[in-house]
Design a protein that fits this description.
Elements lengths: L2 H5 L3 E12 L2 E13 L4 E5 L6 H8 L7 E6 L2 E2 L5 H11 E4 L11 H11 L4 H14 L15 H13 L5 E5 L7 H16 L4 E5 L3 H4 L4 E6 L2 E3 L1
Parallel strand pairs: 3-8, 3-9, 6-7, 7-8
Antiparallel strand pairs: 1-2, 1-4, 4-5, 9-10
Helix pairs in contact: 4-5, 4-6, 6-7
The structure holds adenosine-5'-diphosphate and magnesium ion.
Length: 230
């Protein structure tokens, strides 16, 4: 990676708008959002319920198309990619962590972590090595063959963070990642994000209501009625 690439934003969105069509009416959810996200940054997105936070995250994760505006990721115009190319890009660029229901409950931790690697076409031996390495780093090696449904809530979310890291993403998108955790587990999850940002140079975008979560971040953005305030 040359120096210029290091300084360039991972994500650059300009004048992003989103309308949800509802019968005859068109409801604006995001209005002219400009946002740059650089590697190593940890950005909290705050704002009242219904202000468009989850919508913004889905668009950044290429799971939802905006109505207007531009989105450059790693300098590439990702909105102009066809769906297949977008899916490939998404797989290596972003990892998602949601508030809950992150894991397949009927599967073991190992099987859950293996899935994104299988989709990415990684061979069995490398899958095993990657899973062992990341579980070790998350202090969760002892849970490797545990059924996901028998993990505590905190362990489930920590496993979900590990799963989001499986394909070595540049950006982690987290929607209220500590929303169902107690304080201690919330802290563990946020510290693991901090490590991803500070030591590994990933960017974290975390939607949250919780000022304690925002305090872990390097920057706080606030959405109000679809407008991004800073
Ligand atoms: P937040 O995450 O900040 O609570 P959302 O991005 O989920 O906000 O939603 C923003 C607004 O868009 C809300 O008014 C919500 O009802 C509406 N909305 C979200 N998803 C859809 C959808 N698929 N169709 C129509 N309206 C939606
Ligand atoms: Mg939401």
């Amino acid at each position: 990676m040359d120096e210029k690439t290091l300084e360039d934003p991972l994500i650059e969105v300009r004048q992003l708008t989103k309308f949800y069509e509802n019968g005859k009416t068109s409801i604006p959810v995001l209005r002219h959002v400009d946002l740059n996200i650089r590697q190593g940054e940890m950005v909290a997105v705050m704002g009242p319920s219904g202000s468009g936070k989850s919508t913004l995250l889905l668009i950044l994760g290429l799971l939802l198309s905006p109505t207007g505006g531009t989105y450059q990721a790693l300098g590439k115009d990702v909105l102009s990619l066809d769906p297949h190319a977008q899916a490939l890009f998404r797989r290596s660029f972003v990892g998602f962590v949601f508030q809950a229901c992150n894991l397949i409950e009927g599967s073991t931790v190992y099987e859950n972590l293996e899935l994104p690697l299988i989709y990415a076409g990684v061979g069995k031996k490398q899958r095993r090595e990657r899973i062992l390495e990341l579980l070790e780093r998350a202090n969760m090696s002892h849970r490797i063959h545990h059924p996901a449904k028998l993990l505590s809530g905190g362990e489930q979310q920590r496993a979900a963070v590990v799963r989001a890291l499986m394909n070595n993403p540049r950006v982690i998108l987290a929607d209220e990642p500590t929303g169902q955790l107690d304080r201690e587990n919330g802290r563990i999850v946020m510290e693991s994000f901090q490590k991803c940002a500070a030591q590994e140079g990933r960017a974290i975008v975390a939607v949250t209501h919780d000022p304690e979560v925002a305090a872990f971040c390097t920057r706080v953005c606030t959405l109000r009625d679809g407008t991004l305030l800073r």
